[in-house]
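Query structure, 105 tokens:
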């Protein structure tokens, strides 16, 4: 076993290195990795939106998808008698999936 304290300041730094690596590794596995996984799942569900799905926006607006525009990355929804055009990133969740999509699965 090497005694790093006898090597001076550089030895103390080398002795603390495994602790720093463990902290950084723990932060990755407990903080960053779950966020990346959640973001991928959100992107996937937004990519799989279909006409007829009922969605909720991040602002709390509930509506039904009536048009999807991939070139502008936006969705047109109908909420009551109003039609709104929103960006896909503003969709929080899909409440009810169109019946034909459920039957296909």
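Result returned for the query:
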């Amino acid at each position: 076993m090497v005694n790093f304290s006898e090597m001076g300041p550089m030895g103390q730094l080398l002795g603390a290195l495994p602790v720093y690596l463990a902290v950084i590794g723990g932060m990755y596995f407990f903080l960053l990795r779950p966020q990346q996984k959640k973001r991928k799942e959100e992107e996937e569900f937004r990519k799989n939106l279909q006409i007829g799905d009922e969605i909720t926006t991040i602002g709390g607006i509930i509506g039904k998808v009536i048009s999807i525009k991939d070139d502008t990355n936006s969705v047109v929804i109908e909420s009551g008698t109003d039609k709104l055009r929103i960006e896909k990133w503003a969709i929080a969740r899909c409440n009810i999936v169109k019946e034909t999509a459920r039957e296909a699965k």
